[in-house]
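Exercise 7.
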Amino acid sequence: MGNGDLMMRRLFLAISLLFVLAVPAAAMDQGLAKQVLAEINLARSAPRSYAGFLRSFRTLFQGKEYLLPGSTTHILTNEGGRAVDEAIGFLSRQKPLPPLGWSEGLAAAAAELAEDQGQTGDIGHEGRQSHGMRERIERHGQWQREIAENIGYGPSEARDMVMQLIIDDGVPSRGHRKNNFAAAFTTAGVACGIHPRFGNMCVIDFAGGFRE
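Solution. The predicted structure, written as tokens, is:
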């Protein structure tokens, strides 16, 4: 594996970026989007049970690499199993939280960025056409208290996507994890689609309340 491949794989896992503070395209995977929110709600409502999924994932590591069953591609992480162990410890201590309700307005805001980056191959919270998180969300309604956004790149399965955001490898603040387990949030919207560089992506927009 060349240095370029190693850098791309490292970027693949660390690239889920954090920013706190349109209509979905035909290419958006609405089924996966609903599954992602259901998976987040499972982790919020039963964090200690959810830690079992991470324990199973932890067994796949050799050093900083892991190999998914049925795959021949070794994925290089930034922190290796240490980040998984730390996430397991977090879930074991985390108190259950109410599930997040689905918001069509927040999903539409998330879809703007997913569609934008599905065409450009960009990453991050600023879209060339859709612009920033707050601007996108406010095009679709009025938010209350707080808003935040998670973006995950790569996994095609909801559980893999949510585990990636909970583990938060390479993100010292563990900001994606904090968003998933923030008690201040009551609602969220998700949009998932194809990304030219990383295969798949999901955008999750959170709010303390949302009026469409």
